[in-house]
Amino acid sequence: MILSSDSLPRHVAIIMDGNRRFAAQLGLDPVEGHKRGREKLEEVLKWCQELGIKVVTVYAFSTENFWRRPEEVRAILSLIKEGLEKLAEERRVYENKIRVRILGQRDLLPEDVREVAERVERLTEKHDQFFFNFAVAYGGREEIITAIKKMCRDSVDGKLNPDEIDENTVSQYLYTQGMPDPDLILRTSGEERISNFLLWQLAYSELYFADVYWPGLTKLDFLRAIRSYQLRQRRFGK
């Protein structure tokens, strides 16, 4: 598939949906589906680098996911911890200057997961070529509420004039401060909803829904999403 190099999205955000259904389809334990999902994420990050997509944000674990069975939650958080540990040690993270950031309510995470998350952030904080954002214990409404609370405190402290608050001001109080909003949001599994993900940031994003479970996503599926984005940009003269 031929893609145009001059109209690639700068920022792709991904809702990685369908791990459990993928596992059920193959008669596997749900945890195996999550393991396959983590492996797929490693693949997709490489595809993004190959294409030159600079910012990738993935929805790894929502605040609602804490409601799942305790054993499944523990397994998912353990996989997240292992993935972050791998990022902290992986040579290509340093060779390609990939900055890793964690988005979400860190206080909800187990201490060992939180420590690894903060460690990989410290190790990569000066990297500036690629940006990988990991949304963990994340909820879009909660992010906006947290931003409002911070603005209120700064207003009371005299650091912020309420009359001067605009869209840019709000963006600076979000977890994604300093990043461009997503150009493309990709969701797998065939579900066509946003599920409380980047609610403020997606105001002008293109949405693409792939009818394939996340672990089963192929490179061709991914390129079709990028191609769809490019065709929409041309159609609307962007």
Tell me what you see in this structure.
With 238 residues, the chain is of the alpha/beta class. The chain has one domain: Undecaprenyl pyrophosphate synthetase (3-Layer(aba) Sandwich). Helix content is 45%, strand content 15%. It contains 8 helices and 6 strands; from the N terminus they run E-H-H-E-H-H-E-H-E-H-H-E-E-H. The chain has helices at residues 19-25, 30-51, 70-89, 91-95, 111-124, 140-156, 167-172, 219-235, and strands at residues 11-15, 55-62, 98-103, 130-138, 184-187, 206-209. It has a 6-stranded parallel β-sheet with strand order 3-4-2-1-5-6, with helices on both faces. Strand 3 (98-103), helix 5 (111-124) and strand 4 form a beta-alpha-beta unit. Helix 3 (70-89) packs parallel to helix 5 (111-124). It is globular. The mean pLDDT is 95.
Spell out the blueprint of helices and strands.
Blueprint: E1 11-15, H1 19-25, H2 30-51, E2 55-62, H3 70-89, H4 91-95, E3 98-103, H5 111-124, E4 130-138, H6 140-156, H7 167-172, E5 184-187, E6 206-209, H8 219-235
Helix pairs in contact: 1-2, 2-3, 3-5
